[in-house]
């Protein structure tokens, strides 16, 4: 069995690698799908993890940059009067029902895994994340942390015990996902705007470049959120003055 580790670089996949090595499990290879929308500290973490474990983590990329999928990809209508024709430019921001980013990630990793003989895709879902355990059934897979009974909280503790802290990402966010993930909580987006101003500015620029923007969070664009947060800041200043 050739275990291929799918590494997001977050606490769960990091813990998966550490625990598999600790338990003497063999690792064929490890892959990190690079969206180019990662926090800068995530790239530092991946490099640190490679040095710590001695396991090479291969960087995989989408067929096209994610900025292209977001703003410029011609979207072909599957049905209706415009079936087979371009009916929109750009996928727009992902959402719970439009997770094109996740689909692209899975497809790219599968292309890497399929040619490997007796490959098993190892996915870092924690034991208390049963509602998130999604995978492509066409590829043999396993969830090592579920097998080991390791929860999300335990996974973070194990990572910290090995000296991994992601430069404080988990002090601000529940998940170390893409900095521009629309699935972040509203409070986390406030923190992002305040603590990571350069990344928030990049999100505003991305938001502005989407044709016919359908919204970042529900029907609210990043600019709508900027206006909301600016208003909240103003009210807070007035309250304290």
Keywords:
Rossmann fold; 241 residues; alpha/beta; 44% helix; 7 strands; single chain; two-stranded antiparallel sheet
Global shape: globular
CATH-level-4 superfamily name: HUPs
Poorly predicted residue ranges: none
Give the number of domains: 1
Task: Give a description of the structure.
The protein has 241 residues and is an alpha/beta fold. The protein has one domain: Rossmann fold, CATH 3.40.50. It contains ten helices and seven strands. Strands 3-2-1-6-7 form a five-stranded parallel beta sheet, sandwiched between helices. The chain has a two-stranded antiparallel sheet with strand order 4-5. Helix 1 links the parallel strand 1 and strand 2 (29-33). The radius of gyration is 20 Å and the shape is globular. The mean pLDDT is 93.
What would you say about this model in short?
With 241 residues, the chain is α/β, with parallel strands linked by helices. The protein has ten helices and seven strands. 44% of the residues lie in helices and 12% in strands.
Tell me the layout of helices and strands:
Layout: E1 2-7, H1 11-22, E2 29-33, H2 40-53, E3 57-60, H3 66-71, E4 74-76, E5 86-89, H4 100-113, E6 119-123, E7 141-142, H5 144-148, H6 152-161, H7 169-172, H8 186-195, H9 197-208, H10 222-240
Parallel strand pairs: 1-2, 1-6, 2-3, 6-7
Antiparallel strand pairs: 4-5
Helix pairs in contact: 1-6, 8-9
């Amino acid at each position: 069995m050739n275990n291929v580790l799918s590494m997001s670089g977050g606490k769960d996949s990091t813990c998966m690698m550490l625990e598999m090595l600790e338990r003497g499990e063999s690792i064929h290879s490890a892959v990190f799908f690079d969206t180019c929308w990662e926090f800068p500290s995530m790239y530092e973490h991946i490099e640190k993890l490679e040095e710590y474990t001695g396991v090479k983590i291969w960087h995989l990329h989408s067929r096209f940059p994610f900025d292209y999928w977001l703003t410029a990809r011609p979207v072909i209508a599957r049905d209706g009067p415009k079936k087979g024709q371009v009916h929109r430019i750009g996928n727009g921001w992902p959402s719970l029902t439009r997770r094109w980013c996740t689909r692209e990630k899975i497809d790219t990793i599968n292309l890497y895994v399929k040619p490997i003989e007796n490959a098993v895709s190892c996915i870092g879902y924690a034991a208390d994340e049963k509602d998130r355990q999604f995978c492509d059934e066409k590829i043999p897979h396993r969830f090592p942390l579920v097998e080991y009974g390791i929860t999300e909280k335990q996974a973070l503790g194990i990572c910290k015990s090995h000296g991994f802290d992601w430069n404080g990402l988990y002090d601000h966010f529940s998940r170390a996902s893409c900095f521009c993930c629309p699935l972040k909580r509203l409070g986390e987006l406030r923190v992002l705007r305040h603590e990571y101003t350069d990344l928030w500015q990049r999100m505003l620029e991305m938001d502005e470049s989407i044709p016919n923007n359908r919204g970042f969070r529900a029907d609210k664009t990043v600019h709508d959120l900027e206006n909301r947060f600016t208003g909240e800041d103003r009210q807070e200043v007035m309250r304290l003055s």
